[in-house]
Amino acid sequence: MQTQAKTFIGNHFFIYTLGLIFVFGLWFLFSFTIGQGNLYFPSPIDTIIKVGELLGGASIYKAIGWTILRTLIGFLISLIIAFILGTIAGQYHRVYIFLKPLMLVLKSIPTAAFVFLFLVLSGSRFAPIYIVFLLSFPILYEAISGGMNSISSEVEDSLRLDSSNFFTTITKVKLPLAIPYVIVGLTSSFALSLKTEIMAEIITGDTNYGLGSLISAYRTIDPTDLTPIFAIAFIALLFILIIDLIGMIINRHIKIE
């Protein structure tokens, strides 16, 4: 099993690296054709140089810390509520059907439309947290409830014959079997939450520390140079790629075990 896991990680890391090289190739191409210096599409080299300059100062670390903190607050709140409702819906199909229209509405309404609502209700400081919750909650709920509902009918029949109580069924059987679905939901929703948090910081004009606030500041300082904005986006992208890779490895490891 360990050899299989190492082979999987090695092969996927190689393919993942090829994908990154392909992305950088497209980046060079777009920068060369439509970049016009750093006005529209800064080159990867200029962007990476700017990343090094930003990482040499203290402001970027404060911005990263505040953005991640606000993302985690909204994400953890949504995870707790999604776990409670998703577990109940995964156990009782009628509850799942009852909540389906609500989840459809939450997933369908444009997130940006709620930014202005939360901005009025809570101010620029807390609005991004609510936006993160709004985005991540239905994804986490579907991952938990969907994972539990995907259990085979043979397992369901065995549980009925054993007459297991609610908590035993959930903790000993359904949640362990649903873990791969939950891991995928966690990684994908957290990556989206981080991007949404940055977007919300930009839209709300939040003057507190954050990557979105830093982007707005650099955009105001020099609108003709997008290099700092691309550099900040590149730093955020690194976090998202790491989260995605960790989630992929964990999910594969769980399936192997």
Describe this structure in words.
By secondary structure, the chain is mostly helical. It has a single domain, classed as MetI-like fold, CATH 1.10.3720. Helix content is 85%, strand content 0%. The protein is built from ten helices and no strands. α8 runs parallel beside α9. The longest helix is centred in the last third of the chain and has 39 residues. The model has no long low-confidence stretch (mean pLDDT 79).
How does the SSE layout of this entry go?
Blueprint: H1 2-34, H2 44-55, H3 59-91, H4 93-108, H5 111-122, H6 127-149, H7 153-162, H8 166-204, H9 211-221, H10 227-256
Helix pairs in contact: 1-10, 2-10, 3-4, 3-6, 3-8, 3-9, 4-6, 5-6, 6-8, 8-9, 8-10, 9-10
CATH superfamily: MetI-like
Distance from N terminus to C terminus (CA atoms, Å) equals 8 Å
CATH uppermost class: Mainly Alpha
Structural class: mainly alpha
Instruction: Quickly count the helices.
Output: 10
Radius of gyration: 22 Å
| Count of β-strands | 0
The percent range for strand residues is: under 5%
Largest sheet: none
Q: What's the order of the H and E elements?
A: HHHHHHHHHH
The CATH topology turns out to be MetI-like fold
Concise summary:
It is built from 10 helices and no strands. With 257 residues, the chain is an all-alpha fold.
Keywords:
257 residues, mainly alpha, MetI-like fold
